[in-house]
Design brief:
It is built from 17 helices and 22 strands. With about 500 residues, it is of the alpha/beta class. Helix 2 crosses helix 7. The structure holds nicotinamide-adenine-dinucleotide.
Length: about 500
């Protein structure tokens, strides 16, 4: 049987790349090769940008309500194919079916928001800024926008980007993660089926070379990137050096503060889901529990609960988590776990060497719990991106806040407490962009924006919501005066008579 080749979406149709460089897409639970993804040629990337540039001329003229109608049909199709998309996603990422459905759903919500584009594009007006003069702003699209996405949310993150960008009147070139391109490909098929005109969306595949070509291409106006911190720095520097508008959502180290008055069972349930769900491969996963005072007594209970978690393949409805994405990712996580042990952190539970009967070749890696972690340890300083929870014990809320504010990342955090005053202090003083109060993973819905801070975000305007509309558009401010004959006659001293 021949292996499925992932096509490019180029010039309005799915077509096979001429590239010889290909990467196998494997099911992380079985190593079965699901497909091969091409690394697009230089000529193909140029064609994608050229087609998007050409399509922009007519798409920007499409009335905003008509663009919104495409998004409405797209939203309908995504919902109708929700299970199918989740199955494709689960097979190529290893996520459980429930988790995969959540990934798709969070993307659908952004498309729903894009259906409201006419309202989102409203400008502002001030009448009579001077006698008879009005000033108003109009919001216009930029041109060709580019999205570069990570492996861990192959539905949600492409859907953070291209629907809003395109609804704003731009055209878009998507470069999905080379590790799981099947989900975005199916999503793009549904987008065309929804009535999106040819060429408003192009998809090229590849890695660094293809991305660098897009970052430096003279016809690309804006770059939206989500991925690891070192790559984000490269994208931000190169993109802005080439005078592009750039937003980069990068890595994280998310803390949950547990106050002694928090409900113990709530803390345990929420910490487990937030640290081990999706095998810890979420940018908003909690990877550090900051235990204040007596809450350190929860550690043995956490260890016992970690022991109960069962891994499984995507359609095992009792599985708490699936395999990690690749052997390479697994090796890196194992190496960091060993580093933590060597550096003196206490390993309270080590489930890293687990296996799933019948699926012995899978990239399985079970939960690991450390206590006594110090800020200078490598496991604290680096993003692990696996099901590893670090416990740090402190005496006061002030100490917890100081520890977290010294951390270079600032994506998400949370506090579990029964005290409104503690929560209010935390919310006010913490230098992190997304805060949960008795909510472990505070990802905002799309009418807000996804507002990571510090090293977790490079740029000014964030993903989705009003900020994304600003990111994907320019504001034009018009100052207008109309000469009215009656007004001219009533103010003769101010008019110049033309002969
Ligand atoms: P990654 O940085 O390895 O890859 C992301 C994208 O960049 C991919 O499309 C990849 O092809 C491309 N890429 C990789 N190396 C490149 C290079 N040298 N030059 C140019 N492009 C390159 O990230 P990943 O492993 O796919 O995803 C996981 C990371 O993404 C984690 O660090 C996670 O925290 C982060 N993430 C952040 C958010 C957020 O909102 N802050 C959301 C999801 C994921």
């Amino acid at each position: 049987m021949t292996t499925r080749q992932i096509p490019l979406l180029l010039e309005g149709r799915f077509q096979e790349s001429q590239s010889r460089e290909r990467l196998a897409i494997r099911n992380p639970a079985t190593q079965e090769v699901l497909a091969e993804v091409p690394f697009a040629t230089t000529e193909e990337v140029n064609r994608a940008v050229a087609a998007a540039k050409e399509a922009f001329k007519s798409w920007r003229e499409m009335p905003a309500p008509a663009r919104a109608r495409v998004m409405l049909s797209f939203q309908h199709l995504l919902k109708a194919h929700h299970d199918e998309l989740a199955e494709i996603l689960a097979k190529e990422t290893g996520k459980t079916f429930a988790d995969a459905k959540g990934d798709v759903w969070r993307g659908i919500e952004v498309v729903e928001h894009a259906c409201n584009i006419s309202t989102l594009l409203m400008g502002e007006t001030v009448e009579n800024v001077a006698g008879g003069i009005d000033t108003y702003s109009i919001i216009q699209p930029l041109g060709v926008c580019v999205g570069i996405t990570p492996f861990n949310f192959p539905a949600m993150i492409p859907l953070w980007m291209f629907p809003l960008a395109i609804a704003c009147g731009n055209t878009f070139v998507l470069k999905p993660s080379e590790q799981d391109p099947m989900t975005p490909t199916r999503i793009a098929e549904l987008f065309l089926e929804a009535g999106a005109p040819a060429n408003v969306l192009q998809i090229v595949h590849g890695g660094r070379d293809q991305v660098d070509q897009l970052l430096t291409h003279p016809d690309v106006h804006a770059i939206s990137f989500v991925g690891s911190a070192p790559v984000a720095e490269h994208i931000y520097r190169t993109g802005t050096h080439n005078l592009k508008r750039v937003q980069c959502f990068a890595g994280a180290k998310n803390h949950m503060v547990v106050m002694p008055d928090a409900q113990p069972q709530q803390v345990i349930n929420n910490l487990i889901g937030a640290s081990c769900g999706a095998a810890g491969q979420r940018c908003m996963a909690i990877s550090v529990a900051v235990l204040v005072g007596e809450s350190k007594n929860l550690i043995p209970h956490l260890a016992a609960s970690f022991k109960e978690l069962r891994p499984g393949v995507w359609n095992d409805s009792g599985a708490a988590y699936g395999p990690v994405i690749s052997q390479k990712a697994k090796a890196r996580i194992l190496e960091l776990i060993e580093a933590g042990k060597k550096e003196g952190a206490k390993c309270e539970f080590d489930g890293s060497h687990i296996n799933v009967p019948g699926y012995e070749t899978g990239n399985w890696l079970g939960p690991v719990l450390f206590s006594g972690v110090k800020a200078d340890m490598r496991i604290y300083q680096e993003e692990i991106f696996g099901p590893v929870l670090l416990c740090m014990e402190v005496d006061t809320l002030e100490e917890a806040i100081a520890l977290m504010n010294a951390n270079p990342f600032g994506n998400g955090c949370s506090i579990f407490t029964a005290s409104g005053a503690a929560a209010r202090k935390f919310q006010h003083e913490i230098e992190v962009g997304q805060v949960g109060i008795n909510v472990p993973i505070p990802v905002p819905l799309p009418f807000f924006s996804f507002t990571g801070w510090k090293k977790s975000f490079l740029g000014d305007l964030h993903a989705y919501g009003k900020q994304a509309v600003r990111f994907y558009t320019e504001t034009k401010t018009v100052t207008a005066r109309w000469f009215d004959e009656d007004i001219a006659h009533s103010a003769p001293n101010m008019t110049i008579q033309l002969k």
